[in-house]
Write a structure and sequence with these properties.
The protein has five helices and three strands, in the order ααβααβαβ. A three-stranded antiparallel beta sheet has the order 2-1-3, with helices on one face. It has a domain of about 70 residues: Ribosomal Protein L30, Chain: A (2-Layer Sandwich). Helix content is about 45%, strand content about 15%. The protein has about 120 residues and is α+β, with helices and mostly antiparallel strands.
């Protein structure tokens, strides 16, 4: 068995960076984590009234891909956003562009339908 006093003296001589490196090495070797365990909150008690889920009211219309008819998609972007040609073209060429932000559900689904009809791939988030 290792001399515990000697081991304590050696560990006390480590710098903070060396101690952190030692922790990482021990975690890897032993397959454990030195992170403090997190207490998990208990779920709702059976029979308790459930909190009402707030319905999402604002949506983003995101253009994933302009598709093969990029010019048609640019035209639709311009009508939906009132952007200039250069800005609409840049938006159509950039995957993941937000065409509309924080709009109602009806406006988002309408914009999605128009963009998809023009050949774009659209997501509502």
């Amino acid at each position: 068995m290792a001399d515990m006093e000697k081991l304590v003296e050696q560990l006390s001589a480590l710098t903070v960076l060396e101690a952190a490196e030692l922790v990482k090495m021990l975690e890897e070797k032993w397959g454990v984590s030195a992170a403090a365990p997190v207490a998990v909150a208990a779920g709702p008690v059976a029979g308790a009234a459930a909190e009402p889920v707030e319905e999402k009211t604002e949506f983003d219309v995101i253009l994933k891909d302009a598709g093969p008819k990029k010019i048609e998609v640019i035209k639709v972007i311009r009508t939906l956003t009132n952007l200039g040609l250069v800005e609409a073209k840049t938006m159509a060429e950039t995957a993941g562009s937000k065409v509309l932000s924080a709009v109602g559900k009806e406006a988002a689904t309408d914009a999605k339908a128009k963009l998809e009809a023009a050949g774009g791939v659209v997501e509502i988030a």
